[in-house]
Backbone:
């Protein structure tokens, strides 16, 4: 995937989902227990992102969002055949999780494939094991994957070309999801593992 394609893809979602900094500055934070942890705001509020889904885990078992989000989760949408962005982002997310574990925080990371044609449970298990032993890999039918992507306002589109070695354009945000609470924040590609770990820790502390 080219840098230009990534920028366009991310920009589409950025315009649709992320509110401007000026908007954030004018909002009351009195009712937001996580206000001190946020780096930006979400247009329409955090309730506009996330929701129920049904996918298939690495063991071929159908699971729901409630089965997956049993602890604070760093969530990313991508695909295993991705030549550059997905491996880098997943490693960054895994590094952030390792930092959190070193600090005594109980969290996890999950990777949802937007390429269910190639990303079988077996492929997902092999891929996630490269980054962190506890990274959760999720795939499913095209309909299941689309429903999860729509819930989290992500973008993806299969490119025309070779039927076996095709690429998929996709957005590159990483999400932070809490059990029972749901989506609470997002991370951009230029956020470092240290910055992510600091913010996730802030959210966990604020949640009590």
Residues:
């Amino acid at each position: 995937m080219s840098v230009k394609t990534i920028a366009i893809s991310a920009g589409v979602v950025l315009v649709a989902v992320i509110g401007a900094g000026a908007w954030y500055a004018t909002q009351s934070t009195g009712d937001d227990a996580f206000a001190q942890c946020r780096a930006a705001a979400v247009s329409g509020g955090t309730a506009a992102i996330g929701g129920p889904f049904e996918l298939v885990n690495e063991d071929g078992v159908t699971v729901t969002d409630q089965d997956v989000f049993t602890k604070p989760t760093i969530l990313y949408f991508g695909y295993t055949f991705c030549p550059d962005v997905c491996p880098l982002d997943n490693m960054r997310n895994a590094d952030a999780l390792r930092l959190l574990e070193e600090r005594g925080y109980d969290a996890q990371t999950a990777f949802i494939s937007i390429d269910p044609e190639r990303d079988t449970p077996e492929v997902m298990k092999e891929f996630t094991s490269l980054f962190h032993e506890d990274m959760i890999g999720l795939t499913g039918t095209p309909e299941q994957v689309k429903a999860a992507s729509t819930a989290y306002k992500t973008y993806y589109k299969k490119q025309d070309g070779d039927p076996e070695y095709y690429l998929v354009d996709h957005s590159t945000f990483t999400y932070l999801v809490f059990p029972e609470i749901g989506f609470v924040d997002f991370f951009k590609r230029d956020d470092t593992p240290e910055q992510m770990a600091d913010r996730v820790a802030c959210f966990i502390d604020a949640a009590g």
In short: The chain has seven helices and nine strands. Residues 85-102 form the longest helix (18 residues). Residues 1-29 have pLDDT under 50 and may be disordered. Residues 3-207 form a domain with the Glutaredoxin fold (CATH 3.40.30.10).
